Amino acid sequence: MKYPLGVGLGIAKYKKNIIYANRGMGLEEDINATNEYYRINNKAIIYKKPTPIIVNRVDYKTRQDAVITEAHYRIPSTTDYNGVYKGYYIDFEAKETKNVKYFPINNIHNHQIKHLENITNHGGIGFIIVRFTKLDETYLLPYNKLEQFINENKRKTIPIAYFQTHAYKIKDKYNPRVDYLSIVDKILEGLIK
User: What are the chain's domains?
Assistant: First the structure.
């Protein structure tokens, strides 16, 4: 239809803006929100560990706008999160995978596995949390079950069936989002008995 002066009524095509930044950060964001919930409700004190870096170069436009332009890792980081719950030291690594059949073991570095072993040997609670993003399933695998799989298998991947059998499925909730402490309570029952 043409309006006066020959101006047509165009229908705008809307293109959905897709933001690709922070993909793969869903689990980390959920755990950070969960940890904040735990702190606010005085349930546990658990934080994300900062990655240790050495800053080589900083650009100073102004004191408030300093930007790190070059840095390198000081030492390999251990795991993502640590803290205290019911008097127990908690330490864990969080990973996501898009694969629906397995989790690649090389997503966890050898020094991180050794760190979780040391935590467990000293009476702490060490584990990994793995989210299979395409399945929308999240699991907590205690260190002893991770160690068992590594020792008994030559595979470089952990099948989803192993998680379904030997790990604890964490149900999604509104608050806390990833209630992993409800699983830690089950682990503690086994440790205390």
Answer: 19-192 (3.40.1350.10)
